[in-house]
């Protein structure tokens, strides 16, 4: 009985420690498709956003959002974590646009008709 308990306890310990292990920055980057929007946080707490470019064993290339800016080469030894930014779905973007198109005129009418000084 005790022997079985010890075997199960050790098995559980091995499984949970393997799952809880943090992935290296290279492992994190390999799970993200090239061209995806990412935020790279360095060990010195600086953060850079861009699109994930080419990967090597020691570094990654971060492509800038703004055309004309230079690509940034980031060494994995300096990286704390890499996170993929979630892009809004087409439905979310459309609903935001509709909300803006409806609310802005309503606000302007409200301020104009009732002579409220809400814009000034």
Structural account:
The chain is α+β, with helices and mostly antiparallel strands and 120 residues long. It folds into 2 domains: 23-86, Roll (SH3 type barrels); 88-120. It is 41% helix and 25% strand. The protein has 3 helices and 5 strands. It has a 5-stranded antiparallel β-sheet with strand order 4-3-2-1-5. Strand 1 (37-42) and strand 2 form a beta hairpin. The longest helix is centred in the C-terminal third of the chain and has 24 residues, at 90-113. The protein starts with a helix and ends in a 7-residue tail after the last helix. The mean pLDDT is 79.
Which features does this protein show?
120 residues, 2 domains, alpha+beta, 5-stranded antiparallel sheet, flat, 41% helix, SH3 type barrels, 3 helices
Largest sheet: 5 strands, antiparallel
Please give the count of helices. 3
So, CATH architecture of the largest domain? Roll
- Rg from Cα: 25 Å
**Into which percentage range does the β-strand content fall?**
25-35%
Tell me roughly what share of residues is in helical segments.
40-55%
Q: Report how far apart the termini are.
A: 78 Å
Poorly predicted tracts of residues = none
């Amino acid at each position: 009985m005790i022997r079985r308990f010890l075997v199960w306890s050790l098995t559980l310990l091995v499984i949970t420690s393997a799952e809880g292990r943090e992935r290296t920055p290279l492992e994190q980057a390999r799970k993200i498709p090239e061209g995806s929007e990412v935020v790279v946080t360095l060990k010195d707490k600086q953060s850079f956003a861009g699109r994930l470019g080419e990967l090597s064993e020691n570094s990654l290339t971060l492509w800038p959002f703004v055309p004309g800016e230079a690509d940034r080469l980031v060494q994995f030894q300096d990286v704390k974590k890499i996170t993929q930014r979630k892009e809004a779905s087409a439905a979310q973007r459309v609903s935001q646009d509709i909300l803006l198109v409806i609310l802005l005129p309503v606000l302007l009418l409200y301020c104009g008709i009732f002579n409220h000084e809400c814009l000034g």
